Amino acid sequence: MGAPRAPLPPRRPEGIRWLRSDGKPNFSDRIHRSEGDAKILARRPVYTTTKTTTILGLAEDMSRYRVRAMPVVSPSDEKLEGIVTATDLVSYLGGGDLYNIVVNRHRGNIFSALLKEHVSSIMNPNPVYVTVADKLPRILEIMVTRSVGVLPVVMEDGSLWGIITEHDLVEHLAEKRIGRKVSDIMTSNVITIDAKATLKEAAETMIKYGVRRLPIVEGGKLWGMITAKDIVRFFGSHDVFRYMEGDSMEEALRAPVKLVGLSGYVTVSPDADAGDAATLMREKGVSSLLVVKDGELVGIVTERDILYALATQPS
């Protein structure tokens, strides 16, 4: 078990720093003048799932396609019926309230929990979405005020057209230099986890604090990172079955975070321009950077932070 940690302060809701006093995003004039609607901005084709897909099948697909969210559609007409995220899976696989399904309905049996439960049990049946006609300011406003990083895009009849992610919008809006330092947009109260902690502790920490990434610290030094997608991959790639000997989910959740997370990480200086941070993310193929000063972790900056900085920069 990991060493006890002092309680951390609650995190502010994502996006709150970018809102005006009237609760509206403080977008620059450049955003309001930007051409393009959701139909143009959306990524296609979209990896989707259905209500009847098993939990294991979902984890396999999310691991295979390296996505953190999947729209749930009707097989007959591609109508949007919900959305399921890596965070939902982490909650089900030991981190949150959805784990009660594993305990109560499947008596903690990992094979029953993965093969006999379906997406319908853990998905959000009322997903936040946009239509093909919605413009960039509206898309960004929904992302900021509803704190979502993935938006399904639907046609007038409710059928799925595509999907828009924070990554897509960062790519669309990217500029070499933004004129804001990383220190201005980063989150400074970084939530970490000890290298001696278990997978269950990591999952519970993610759900408790509403984060998808946890830097792993060993002996007071950074070792690597564990993300919600890593946890999904651990199950979806079947690595979990190589680790365990029995059929207990609790046994699987005793796996050390170093077994599930990845060693190594990408860092950036707090004095770097946010545009340079975006370029570094793109070059390294990561969605977040650890902010380090004089060898000490002082913050974390994500694609969401970059996106909001791009959208609210002075024209």
From TrEMBL:
Tree of life domain: Archaea
Compositional bias annotation for Basic and acidic residues: 11-20
Keyword Iron among record annotations: no
CDD domains reported for this sequence: CBS_arch_repeat1 (cd17777), CBS_arch_repeat2 (cd17778)
Keyword Nuclease: no
Keywords, sorted A to Z: CBS domain
Comp. bias intervals (Pro residues): 1-10
Disordered, as annotated region: 1-20
Residues in CBS domain copies: 42-101, 123-182, 186-241, 261-315
Name listed for the protein in its UniProt record: CBS domain-containing protein
Species of provenance: Pyrodictium occultum
